[in-house]
Write a structure and sequence with these properties.
With about 350 residues, this protein is α+β, with helices and mostly antiparallel strands. The protein has 3 domains: about 60 residues, Uridine Diphospho-n-acetylenolpyruvylglucosamine Reductase, domain 2; about 140 residues, 2-Layer Sandwich (Uridine Diphospho-n-acetylenolpyruvylglucosamine Reductase, domain 3); about 120 residues, UDP-N-acetylenolpyruvoylglucosamine reductase, C-terminal domain (Uridine Diphospho-n-acetylenolpyruvylglucosamine Reductase, domain 1, Alpha-Beta Complex). Helix content is about 20%, strand content about 25%. The chain is built from 7 helices and 21 strands. A 5-stranded antiparallel beta sheet has the order 6-7-12-10-11. The longest helix has 19 residues. The protein is globular. The protein starts with a strand and ends in an 8-residue tail after the last strand. It binds NADP nicotinamide-adenine-dinucleotide phosphate (NAP). The site of NADP nicotinamide-adenine-dinucleotide phosphate has 19 residues, from strand 8 and strand 13. The site of NADP nicotinamide-adenine-dinucleotide phosphate (NAP) has 19 residues, from strand 8 and strand 13.
Length: about 350
Amino acid sequence: MKKHLQFSVKALNSFNIQAIAPKIFFPTSLVELTELANKHFTHFYVLGEGSNTLFCDEKTPVLIKPSFKGIELTEDNDSFYVKVACAENWHDFVEYCVNKKIYGIENLALIPGSAGAAPVQNVGAYGVEVGDFIDKVSWFDFSQQALVNYSNAQCKFSYRDSIFKQKLNGRGVITHVYFKFPKIWHPIISYQGLSCLPPPVSAQDIMQKVIQLRQEKLPDPKVLANAGSFFKNPMVTNACFKALQQKYPAMPFYPQSNGNVKLAAGWLIEQAGLKGFKEGDVGVHEKQALVLINYADALGQDIVKLAKHVQQQVMKQFNVQLQAEVRFITQQGEVDSASVGKG
Ligand code: NAP
């Protein structure tokens, strides 16, 4: 199996943070995954394309970067079934589907990352979540040393969350994702920016518009190192929302089916005066306040410090706790973002 020792991960994370992995493995088969399972690493982290990862320390834990590739397509009268291997690039996969006239995930164009990482945090954008179209996920379980399939219901998809981020975190590797796309397609154009598309709207139109919107608003990680949305949108109780709305009538809000209300984290950060904030090598993007930037040679801890500052300012003004969407990886593995960078 391909592996490296004392390997710099700078090119393997979109924040462009310099850190050294003591060992990094690139398994491409179940035999190689079994070999890794037998090593019983105390701390390890499964890396996709590193687009939602913050390496907090100068050293990382052991890294496993599964490198399975390939896409298989079948169909019946009602649906297309697509099996995609974890190391396929997500955006390339979206384009593959749309070009084959397989529709459903066009709203998720240009989300950075791999296909295998998409179910982990149930990536979502413009009113669509990847879990809406996942049939099952193949998971190599290290303790069982076997492949286990998780049905959509077993994946426990919710807002930027799944069983892979919770109970199964650190216990194995997603090898393949199985999608089911009904042949009857309904465009989702409820979000601002898409609702203006002239009818009849095609999936191709939606994909192109999403690409345009994202390119206008979001910094290209190859130009300005970043990990996309750094924070999740906070969900607050209706009572909390009402109190805030009285004080901030212009505040955007999105009522949820469970009675809670989703607030826009980017708006809160902007109102706290932090849009465009810059200190040393790090800052808050000037067009999209939800994105934190490494402008040059920041350390992981510089980003951690900035994230804490943003959380504190939003807490001070709105009494709302922002939670990180980005995953915090220390030398000891993944940690809760609240437990790093104290002091
Ligand atoms: P925006 O239009 O400025 O809206 C801010 C937030 O309000 C969004 O995060 C979105 O929540 C929510 N929102 C907007 N319209 C909504 C609607 N009709 N119904 C429910 N919620 C609504 O958003 P933006 O920052 O330009 O982002 C547009 C989309 O791209 C969003 O879906 C966002 O999540 C996605 N995006 C994802 C990433 C990433 O790294 N995963 C990065 C940037 C943007 P939701 O986030 O829940 O959709």
